[in-house]
Amino acid sequence: MALQFKKYWIIFFIFLCLMISILFTVLWFYVWPEGLGNGKQGFLFFLVRYGHSFVWFLISIATAIVWVRLVLTGQLVVTRNAKLIYQLAGCIYALFVFFLL
Fold it and tell me: What is the superkingdom listed in this entry's lineage (predicted)?
């Protein structure tokens, strides 16, 4: 009985993380203004606009992995895969900031 209850929590947290990442993707796509009236913004603008959504998606996946481990074991443990995903998201975000300056 307890294992089935844990499965529902796992599915709920994965769903929640994916919904947050989809929300940020939609917000960045539809809400971000197109700039100063330029029709062509270039490749850098494209990376910044859609890259933030990708970074949030990576963070959501890594957080879902941590939540799954928490529900299954009862311990808050960041696995090696989650740590690699967090580091990848950090490196991608740092590249965006570096190219913007």
Answer: Bacteria
